[in-house]
Amino acid sequence: MVQTVIFDLDGTLLNTIDDLAAAGNWVCRQNDWPEFTAEEYKTMVGHGIPALVSAFSPENCRGPLRTADSLARFSDYYGKHSLDKTRPYAGIPQLLDTLKRRGMTLAVYSNKADEFSQVIVGHFFPDAFAMVRGKLPAFPVKPDPAGVLSLMGELGADVRNTVFVGDSDVDMHTARNAGLHSCGVAWGFRSREALTAAGAERIFGTPAELERFLLSEA
Questions:
Q1: How far apart are CA 79 and CA 86, in angstroms?
Q2: pLDDT tens digit string along 89-111?
Q3: Contact status, residue 4 vs residue 157, Cβ threshold 8 Å
């Protein structure tokens, strides 16, 4: 019986890749580094912003001081432009509304910095979630389960009745590490094949498919 649904953010609820790519390429231009396409950025995201910055930085520019400077530049730009092109995936608002009306507790757990996660989720889904949690210093990034389990403790959620929904191998590994059921979504930044390889228990092609499954398990 599903009572709590925890969602990843980027690539699951929202298509954020154009704004992430714009911020990354802005830093690249400032440093005369090669730029990347949005499709290439899809392979870089998922492990948190510091890892993203390291991924688009040339190997000889990944020292601690240079990385800290690039991270600060990225965060400043992204903080000003994170809502420019970001949009919910089709069907997501309806999915969240239906699940909430059916009495499920909904939450977000993301590797995106907490301050960005709060702003973006608050903008697009102001009343949908009981809790929103991005990357905080107290917890390592996913797939370490510590942050998810802490969030569940605050919600009073039971592992046996909680599902983790995400678009990446990181999310599927997070679910497994936390002892949660996993639902992979194929509309995000990773392929169905990658989700299968990561051990997704179920994979859904549309929010409507995911909704039907969750309601059948409620």
A1: 13
A2: 999 999 999 999 999 999 999 99
A3: yes
Query: What are the DSSP calls for 104-127, one per residue?
Result: -EEEEEEEEEHHHHHHHHHHH-TT
- Tokens at 115, concatenated: 């301050």
For residue 143, is the peptide bond before it cis, meaning its omega torsion is within 30 degrees of 0? yes
Q: Other C-beta atoms within 10 Å of 41: how many?
A: 23
Residue with tokens 């977000």: 108
- pLDDT tens column, 112-165: 999 999 999 999 999 999 999 999 999 999 999 999 999 999 999 999 999 999
When the candidates are 3.40.50.1000, 3.40.50.720, 3.10.580.10, 3.50.50.60, the CATH number that belongs to 4-15+86-217 is 3.40.50.1000
- The 3-state DSSP class for residue 145 equals coil
Give the ranges where the chain is alpha helix by DSSP (H): 17-30, 38-42, 49-56, 64-81, 92-101, 114-124, 146-155, 169-178, 192-197, 207-217
